Amino acid sequence: MMAWLQLLIAGLFEVVWATCLKLSDGFHKLGFASVTVIGMVLSFVFLTLAIKRLPMSLAYPIWTGIGAVGSVAVGVLLLGDRINPITWVFVAFLLIGLIGIKLTS
Question: Is the pTM of this model over 0.85?
Fold first, then answer.
């Protein structure tokens, strides 16, 4: 159970660093650039902890999936990104895939 929590935290830090990367304006805003690097390091640290107890074939796709779905959500909800309606169908497929991987593991 702890490994899954670590994987979730790793995925959330993936969203943090991706968001701050955008907000850093090409690393020109030092505060956001710093959070980007810290978020990357923490994401990898928690992924490393999780992957000690979870198979890589499960942990890695779930980690990237959390980052992908979370980044879409942050982009739309906080950054004003516009997503084509059909894109939402594919985001839902990603989420269904993540849930399916977890349920069948």
Answer: yes
